[in-house]
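S., here's the first fold you wanted:
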Amino acid sequence: MILPRRHFVAGALAAAALIRTTPAKPQSMLIELDPGQSAATPPATQALAPPLPAGTLPPWRRNAVAAPPLNGRPAITLVIDDMGWMHRYTDQAVALPGPLTLAWFPFAQKLPEQVAAAAARGHEAMLHMPMQSHSDSIRQTGPDPLRIDLPPAVNQALLRNAIDAVPAIVGVNNHMGTVATLDPLLMELVAREVHDHGMLFLDSVVVPHSVALCCAELAGVPAAARDVFIDNVADPATIWGQLAATEAFARRHGHAIAIAHPRPRTLAALEVWLPTLAARGFVLWPLSATVAWRNNLDPVRSAA
């Protein structure tokens, strides 16, 4: 019997996906999103992204924020997802000390102005790409998510439009995606596009056995997976416990990638926690630096 390619690729990636050491919890959205936006028009063919001019740095390098030297200290990377939608909380997140990496919704309004304001505060930008979840609700993913039941050309157009919508980004991570990140063909498409655009990829790991990181690595994309979710439970004690878990992970492994969201209780904790890190022996690093470190890319590693 000849298996469909989707099943064959899924089997080939399954073993690699099982090596995850950090248990994942389903990602939740406390604020529902407005579905009122039209889908992208697909191109006639699945063309390649324009190649980067010879001798130029890829965007994940060119748009990267400089990483402070480690001097033997562990690094913590904090990614704040869901940026740009709720402007009040977005502004509060932008005001946090950094460098942080802020993941912006592609459907948010006034993105050039918002991203520029964050850059002026020393923060890095990335695309927070909506992807199909088990709820199958546009009210959770936001408009125009990548879906396993869409033709590849449509998903490609959606992703390219989203990349174009957020200026000066270093890469892409997934918003939701409990269905999408289990699908090897869709994640192969994402990996190819991210590679062809010269960007990095962060697997948010919203579901166990995601194949997103595996596909990115196989495509030659500088990539990593998050280690800790800070605020899956919107309870102050839990948030502080996850911040402590982030510190413990960083001390054990030398670096940690944590994801948080611009929510009132999370922001209140971060406003207290972030200013204390340097005195307690940690260094805040942008995502680009930690991804470079985990992929053994010497130019950033030399800054340590």
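And the second, which I think is the more interesting of the pair:
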Amino acid sequence: MKNTNYKFTKIWYTYSQKYSSVHTFRRVAELGLPKATPELYKEYTDLTMNLLSSDKYLSNRKRFIEEGWVEKTPNFLLKNTINTFNSSIDSASLIFAHSILDAAAFEYCQLIAEDSPMSFKEKLSNKKLSLSDISNNSYEDLLKSQLNKFLEDFERESMLKKFELLFYLCKPPGVYEPLENYKYDNKRISELDTLRHDYVHGVGIVNKLPNGEEDITYLEKTLYFFTALIHDTFGYKIDPNSLIELWKNKE
């Protein structure tokens, strides 16, 4: 169990730190934007004035001036830049936050498979085996071999499929809410998963996160939700000695 607790602690610690990086990324971007805004406005004002400097850029400079586009253009370009910047920060944050949670969920599945392979017995019950496999291997060896093949294929499954497996392995009670101000919501996670897919593969306008920072925090809390669920089911613990060892290795 000591080695298992170390691995459990390492998974929790590693991916918690990665979420900290996402929050830092967003915070630095938030702090930097107000400082960049005046410089961007100046650049767009200079660009507008350059457009006015020659007939080859504008076919009707008089109308451009009379309709107020000398003032409107820098503001329009600045607003568009800020919106694009914020949407890009959201898309990068969600893609990273999603990949963190997906990787952590799979590593938790791996840990349970290593420590409690019999938990997967029903999942493997329909796997076909040759007579030579049966005659030349013990039950434990066959289970381990099939489990390794299962996990190798399963790693490519969606994050939601990994969550389904963790729920299957842990079998929480009907109402399971180990964290304050958090309730597991499969619909919300599915919607964020779809948005992440659109960020990566979609075309056209990139939308901002529906709830901004709160959505990133929700995915982070989902990691802690499954950490608590696995702890309550299998008894794995966040080990202080393991944390100290991990901190030392990071130095």
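Why I say that: Residues 2-250 form one domain. The two ends are 26 Å apart (CA to CA).

Talk tomorrow,
H.
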